[in-house]
Write a structure and sequence with these properties.
Length: 354
């Protein structure tokens, strides 16, 4: 059924059809009985509660950052069974992002190329949206006068810097986002690995990372309730750079890593080279990234002797991909491109085999 729907949706521009699809789902979920029917169909039947640092998810399959940048579709995505949703990347000020078109499909490779450029509504608007979400959830529970049957949806906040902010001032942008979102998200991911903001990946160097992460940890330690802080890394790092990340993570007791972001590598693609050239710059995600991201997950797990919790992201389409990541050392799994190609049943299908 979904394959037929996908063949129709793939006839239209990628970014536009993304929002069209999610708004249609939002409309359906606004009707109580329809929402309950969707949830009954897509929620995993197996309960796979997974603790990650201080946070417990209903299951270990989450949705990666970039899908619901502005926290507009949390109710709808919760109905599809995700154990956690990572919103963002969020920046201090609103951004339009890069010029369109900026999201492209490579169906022959089961991949996407994006150069979105951290388009988002800005941290103040998104924080208010999350506040309303949490207040509404609290009221529903109180009015029902019952204890919820399952764990609430876990929300991660993926934070970045504005395009116009120079790298030497980047720590201020991360601080702003961290403080604004802290009351409303369950964990944070520091994004310095997107290839679509000029110069951003330079912040992956050890000393730049140290300055940002230790500053956030200092703020975090001053809160009544601290939140886990993770770092998202690129798959294009050299072994020496990954070693630096591991050393720093162990040294400052970072809560975990997300491995990995999209890649700028274009090797071994089935899609004709002239089409790749026409598309141009951007981060590649999907099936071509599976092997590389798994290798990095395994490398981190072995090098750190399992001391660094890992969220695996990259090329997860089926339960075999998920199991591969788990066996490599991942504690949690994130899908994104796989969700586009496999459809809304992806969480249930993966959880059935975990």
């Amino acid at each position: 059924m979904y394959k037929l729907l996908r063949s129709i949706l793939f006839l239209f521009p990628t970014e536009g059809v993304h929002y069209f699809s999610m708004n249609c789902l939002k409309l359906l979920c606004s009707i109580g009985i329809v929402r309950k029917t969707i949830a009954a169909f897509y929620l995993p039947s197996r309960r796979l509660r997974t603790k990650f640092t201080t946070v417990t998810m209903r299951n270990p399959v989450g949705l990666g950052a970039g899908f619901d940048k502005n926290a507009k579709y949390l109710r709808e995505l919760e109905c599809l069974g995700f154990g956690f949703i990572e919103i963002g990347t969020v920046t201090p000020k609103p951004q339009q992002g890069n010029d369109k078109p900026r999201l492209f499909r490579l169906p022959k490779d089961k991949a996407l190329i994006n150069r979105m450029g951290f388009n988002n509504d800005g941290v103040v608007v998104i924080a208010k949206r999350l506040q309303k979400w949490k207040e509404k959830r609290r009221q529903l529970i109180q009015n029902a006068r019952v204890v919820p049957r399952d764990l609430p949806l876990v929300i991660g906040g993926n934070i970045g810097k504005n395009k116009v902010t120079p790298n030497e001032e980047a720590w201020k942008d991360y601080e702003t986002c961290f403080k604004e979102l802290h009351p409303y998200v369950d964990y944070f991911v520091v994004n310095v690995s997107s290839p679509n903001t000029p110069g951003l990946r330079e912040l992956q160097e050890k000393e730049s990372l140290r300055k940002i992460l230790m500053h956030l940890q200092m703020i975090n330690n001053g809160k009544a309730q601290s939140k886990p802080i993770l770092l998202k890394i690129a798959p294009d790092l050299s072994p020496e750079q990954i070693d630096d990340v591991i050393d720093l993570a162990l040294e400052i007791k970072l809560d975990g890593l997300v491995a990995t972001n999209t890649t700028i590598d274009r090797s071994n693609l089935v899609t004709p080279e002239n089409k790749i050239t026409t598309i141009g710059a951007g981060g590649l995600s999907g099936a071509p990234l599976r092997e590389k991201s798994t290798e990095i997950v395994k490398y981190i797990a072995e090098k750190s002797e399992g001391k660094i919790p890992i969220i695996a992201s990259g090329g997860i389409f089926k339960h075999t991909d998920a199991i591969e990541k788990k066996e490599a050392g991942a504690a949690l799994l994130q899908v994104w491109t796989g969700f586009i190609y496999e459809g809304p049943g992806i969480v249930k299908k993966i959880c059935r085999h975990l």
